[in-house]
C-alpha cells in the first residue's frame, strides 16, 4: 500500500509524494511521485516546515506591532 503525502517538491513543484508504508514514520524517506526527487526523511521535512511556519508567524507579529 502506498500513502500519498501533500508536500511541494522543490525540483518539479508537484505535490504528490510517496513512500512504501501504510503509515508515516519519522525515518521514512519521502520521494516525489512525479520526478523521483528525494526530499529527505519525514523528520527532516517536518523540522523544515516548522521553522518556516515560525518565521512566518514572527514576520506577521512584527507587522501587527507596526
Strand residue content? 15-25%
Low-confidence region ranges: none
Coarse shape: elongated
Number of helices: 1
Task: Give the rounded overall mean pLDDT.
Answer: 80
Distance between the termini: 50 Å
- Listing every helix as H and every strand as E from the N terminus to the C terminus, the arrangement reads EEEEH
| Rg over CA atoms | 15 Å
> Percent range for helical residues?
25-40%
Widest β-sheet, arrangement of strands: 1-2-3-4
> How many beta-strand elements?
4
Major sheet characteristics: 4 strands, antiparallel
Structural class: alpha+beta
Describe it for me?
The chain has a domain at 15-56. The relative contact order is 0.17. The chain is an alpha+beta fold. It is built from 1 helix and 4 strands. A hairpin with a 5-residue loop joins strand 3 (29-32) and strand 4. The longest helix has 24 residues, at 42-65. Strands 1-2-3-4 form a 4-stranded antiparallel beta sheet.
Amino acid at each position: 500500500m502506498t500513502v500519498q503525502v501533500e508536500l511541494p517538491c522543490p525540483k518539479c513543484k508537484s505535490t504528490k509524494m510517496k513512500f512504501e508504508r501504510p503509515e508515516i514514520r519519522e525515518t521514512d524517506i519521502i520521494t516525489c511521485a512525479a520526478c523521483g526527487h528525494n526530499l529527505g526523511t519525514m523528520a527532516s521535512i517536518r523540522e523544515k516546515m516548522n521553522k518556516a511556519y515560525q518565521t512566518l508567524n514572527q514576520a506577521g507579529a512584527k507587522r501587527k506591532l507596526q
